[in-house]
Amino acid sequence: MGTVGAHNAASKVEIIGLTHSRAVAFVKDGVTVNAIAPALIETDMTSNPNPSPVLIPMGHFGSIADVASVAVMLAMNDYMTGQTISVNGGWYELVPISTNLACASVLRLRVKY
Fold first, then answer.
1. pLDDT at 91
2. Interacting residues of 41 by C-beta distance below 8 A, sequence separation 6+
3. CATH number of the domain within which 47 lies
4. pLDDT recorded at residue 46
5. How many Cα atoms occupy the beta-carbon half-sphere of 46 within 13 Å?
6. pLDDT tens per residue, range 69-86
7. What is the domain range of residue 94?
8. pLDDT tens digits for range 39-52
9. More confident site: 16 or 92
């Protein structure tokens, strides 16, 4: 886990921008591009004692299944493109803490009939 700061925010903004630009570039070829932006997800990487579920309005960390269900939804949807879906339990980081924050892009090929 890294420390959240300006570098983390900048990388997330870049992924969002990349998602938007690739969505526009690839849509005519039948490719949709979306991103998933998970916040505190309980994984093997959340062994750091600093993150606390108290920070999350839902009161608990997200699960891998929470993120996976969004990926499945995006994979099944052939109309949504250029979107970033936050999986965050209602938590929007206001203070820097050490967390397992990641952003993943999801590409989906649409078959044109």
1. 84
2. 61, 62, 63, 64, 66, 67, 87, 100
3. 3.40.50.720
4. 64
5. 16
6. 999 999 999 999 999 999
7. 2-109
8. 888 887 766 667 77
9. 16
The model's pTM is 0.74
Strand order in the sheet with 84-87: 84-87, 31-38, 104-109
DSSP assignment of the chain equals -EEPSHHHHHHHHHHHHHHHHHHHHHGGGTEEEEEEEE-SB-STTTT-SS--GGGSTTSS-B-HHHHHHHHHHHHH-SS--S-EEEESTT----S--EE----EEEEEEPPP-
**Which residues are registered as beta bridge partners of 98?**
3
pLDDT of residue 99: 41
The C-alpha atoms of residue 16 and residue 34 are separated, in whole angstroms, by 9
Q: Per the structure, how many domains does the chain have?
A: 1
Residue 32 CB neighbours (<10 A): 22
Instruction: Evaluate if residue 106 carries a pLDDT over 90.
Output: no
